[in-house]
């Protein structure tokens, strides 16, 4: 196999660098000087390159290809879902007391029974792989209003009873049986207490005549004496 030699020359027209490869014995300096055919070949090659406007270049170096490493297998994504949930709860009722002058003091009575209300709360629930992860309140609605319990408290004071008049007890033998409701003494004369009579005995009326009005205590004849 012949030994090759690389010869670099410059184009006289374009200044381009031309590299020619030929057997060493063909492209030796002594051959270029002494062989007209070789000189003609080289000159023709230069003219062709110059006429085409081309430039001889070394072969482009190969670029190594980059290969992406396969991605490592990570955990699979978790399924996330959303749903709306409604929850019904009870609303406690309030209690209040009002004064009632139509009831005696100290007497109480429930006049309006209390009742629970109902409230519906709406939540947005987030689930990850079927497990609840978050719950957010988005709205509330009162479907049944609670009823306040009302208790009446009596404030009326009872009227004081009038004291009974004091009547001195008299022995039955000293009271005239012609009169009742008061003891009319047995005497020579009996007048109404506080009146104009001069006695000697007096009676605090009124007295009811049940027999004979021997002391003339019933002046108007209505059956009641000492009533005026």
TrEMBL record:
Residues 60-79 are annotated as: Disordered. This is G5 domain protein. Residues 76-157 form the G5 domain. Keywords: Signal. It comes from the Bacteria. Residues 64-79 have a biased composition (Low complexity).
């Amino acid at each position: 196999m012949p030994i090759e030699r690389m010869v670099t020359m410059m184009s006289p027209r374009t200044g381009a660098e031309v590299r020619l490869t030929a057997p060493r014995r063909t492209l030796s300096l002594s051959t270029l000087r002494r062989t007209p055919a070789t000189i003609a070949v080289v000159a023709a090659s230069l003219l062709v390159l110059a006429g085409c406007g081309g430039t001889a270049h070394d072969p482009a170096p190969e670029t190594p290809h980059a290969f992406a490493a396969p991605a490592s297998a990570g955990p699979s994504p978790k399924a996330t879902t959303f749903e709306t949930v409604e929850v019904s709860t009870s609303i406690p009722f309030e209690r209040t007391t009002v004064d009632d002058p139509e009831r005696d003091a100290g007497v109480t009575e429930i006049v309006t029974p209390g009742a629970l209300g109902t409230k519906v709360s709406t939540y947005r629930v987030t689930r990850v792989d079927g497990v609840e992860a978050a719950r957010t309140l988005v709205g509330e609605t009162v479907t049944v209003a609670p009823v306040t319990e009302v208790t009446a408290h009596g404030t009326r004071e009872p009227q004081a009873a009038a004291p009974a008049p004091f009547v001195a007890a008299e022995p039955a033998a000293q009271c005239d049986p012609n009169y009742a409701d008061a003891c009319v003494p047995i005497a020579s004369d009996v007048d109404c207490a506080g009146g104009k009579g001069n006695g000697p005995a007096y009676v605090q009326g009124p007295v009811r005549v049940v027999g004979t009005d021997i002391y003339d205590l019933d002046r108007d004849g209505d059956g009641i004496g000492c009533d005026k």
